[in-house]
Amino acid sequence: MAEQFIVTPWEVRGNIDYDKLIKDFGTEKIDGKLLERLKKHTGELHHFLRRGIYFSHRDFNWILDKFDKGEAFHLYTGRGPSGKVHVGHLTPWMFTKWLQDKFDTELWFQMTDDEKFLIKNKSLEEMNKNSYENALDVIAMGFKPNKTHIFSDIDYIKSQYKIALKVAKKTTISTVKAIFGFKDSSNIGIAFFPAIQTVPCFLPSEIYGKNIPVLIPASIDQDNYWRMARDVAEKLGYYKPAQIHGKFLPGLQGMTEDGKMSSSEEMTCVFTTDTPEMVEKKIMKFAFSGGRETIEEHRKKGGNPDVDVSYQWLTFFEEDDKKLKKIHDDYKSGSLLTGELKQILIKKLNEFLKEHQKKREKAKDKIDKFMLRD
Amino acid sequence: MAEQFIVTPWEVRGNIDYDKLIKDFGTEKIDGKLLERLKKHTGELHHFLRRGIYFSHRDFNWILDKFDKGEAFHLYTGRGPSGKVHVGHLTPWMFTKWLQDKFDTELWFQMTDDEKFLIKNKSLEEMNKNSYENALDVIAMGFKPNKTHIFSDIDYIKSQYKIALKVAKKTTISTVKAIFGFKDSSNIGIAFFPAIQTVPCFLPSEIYGKNIPVLIPASIDQDNYWRMARDVAEKLGYYKPAQIHGKFLPGLQGMTEDGKMSSSEEMTCVFTTDTPEMVEKKIMKFAFSGGRETIEEHRKKGGNPDVDVSYQWLTFFEEDDKKLKKIHDDYKSGSLLTGELKQILIKKLNEFLKEHQKKREKAKDKIDKFMLRD
Q1: Would you call B189 and A195 a contact, using CB atoms and an 8 Å cutoff?
Q2: pLDDT of amino acid A254
Q3: ipTM score of complex
């Protein structure tokens, strides 16, 4: 198996070795001891934790220490609204919602429309519009309206600017070149942007006038920002933000080609607004199969669920461990064919999306309750 | 005489050769033809124009062309509110007020509290507070309340951010390094800041939804920003901003030591809030003299008004050409002694400041009419 893979805030590609990422990024593995500790608070464990989909963290024990001493933490996550939301974007939000429910925390959700304008060949107006379109998907996840603050950077810049300036004053061009790989040919907006992305790590403390621990559930590709935020935090007298990292939902074409689902390729991902027919067509046509060449061979030798994208997607979307195990074993033994496995996923995903689309529609009436604007 | 001098947005030093500046910055000299043309609009010429204190421009003829065709221009100037306002800061504002009166234009006045925080060892809160303190001096100049918009960058960032992002996207780190001398060790905030300072060149066009010519009356040390603004203007479809450049009021210690009055040195400048006693003490003690060593020598050989700071200040503050000429001739002939010349300036300046301080006090009740906030 190829060992080459890339994980940066702008590119995730290849067959990702998550153990190597833990080593490279200098984070900690989520181990049995931490899961036991968490279980005492949450009663049950989210299936993303039971299955190692959330696999890495930084200072999560410290977050729980603080919580045990009565210092409630806040959650911070976000989205770069370059286009439509696909189901791969939803998985960290599902986990974030679970954390909000279990710990009854506030959530700060940053839409980085400024960043997407600065790095894409798209208009500012379109990126800003996407912030509100994408927010419907966030709201549809079921976050608590009175404890969830979603904001477009462009429309909430005044509340963020002072902290961004304080962060920027402590951050040199050298630093952002080293951390993010910027060059002298990079534009001055994207050079400044890391200061904006760190703001919500410290915003709750500013708003409440006391130091508040912040936990960031996010994919590990955003880690560069949080390392920068942690460096600056000390200099500005804030707590360092803690992180908990999830694996990427693989693209339909499979993990060996593209570890993360890319929304720029219409036919490699499932958008939250796709019709049942589109979902079926995409999965039947593109989902990388771990099955054998012929039905006879599959029946005899069995399929490989570890590389089968439909099975991998079910590890995210099928919450029932027993059902998932049966699918796994049946596929491995050969009694379940690839076409049948795909149909299981299609049914599951379409059930999920039917509900999601209903909630997304209702979210249109609730958007003002969730969105912050200056 | 030493030919070395420095003129940058952060440092103005040495005996400034203004003709060389015109060549170096690639601007145009304000010549008799332009003055004649201007006189047709204004009736009289401001004494700063009569005396060559406003000496250079870029596209001022174009501004008048547009005006003649019925396209009114707007004015843009500003201040970096690092501390108290001194009388050297007032001179461009006097000229700006004259332009507003003569052409009945709107004025956009940017307080760059963000910039000052980023480059000074001062708190953001203090710089922001200075914006409002300094605004009292601006308002005291007598600008029209319904046509004058003063704003702190920090408190008006939301209205400026979209344009700043558009400018930033078109400006590389290389460009700001070349124009402003930034290094990799510069902070990412100051690297982004030139985008903010260019915003008011284009803000009137955005607000009114049509291209509006903008004229910037400012000292020539800010020219780097406007050259950048002019480069970007074309790419974004705005008019290039025009400029008109004034000379610096020399520091009390004279032009050979410090061409621009520096407010960071308490005893080299006169603040707008100084008492008559402080003004007298400062001028008597510190104003560089063009007089002779002894009274006898002075009576015989006469003084040198060209290097005498008190006389230079009178070229800014004594509007009456005849009175000024008499002072000049009397000093040059030796009939007017340095102490007497200083007393003329002290009287003139204290009369001016008495009025200014009254208006500044009244400005406290009007500040909300002038200040924009998001």
Answers
A1: yes
A2: 72
A3: 0.93
